From TrEMBL:
<protein>
    <submittedName>
        <fullName>Amidohydrolase</fullName>
    </submittedName>
</protein>
<dbReference type="GO" id="GO:0016787">
    <property type="term" value="F:hydrolase activity"/>
</dbReference>
<keyword id="KW-0378">Hydrolase</keyword>
Length: 62
């Protein structure tokens, strides 16, 4: 997600200041909705959850 128009490094005072603006608030809200949607889809679709677990097992056993 693009939050700022400039290349501002994360975890800096400048980035924190940008997060206090309306665009920052909007981005945080949209991010929360994206996470909530992912959690609900994962919770409601057991096949999806099993697929995620299987992919994770494959990744961890490389």
């Amino acid at each position: 997600m693009i939050l700022v128009k400039e290349d501002i490094p994360l975890h800096t005072r400048e980035f924190a200041d940008e997060m206090l603006k309306e665009t920052g608030h909007t981005a945080i809200g949209k991010g929360g909705k994206i996470l909530a949607t992912f959690i609900m889809k994962t919770f409601l679709d057991k096949n999806l959850l099993e697929d995620i677990k299987e992919e994770h097992r494959k990744y961890r056993n490389k």
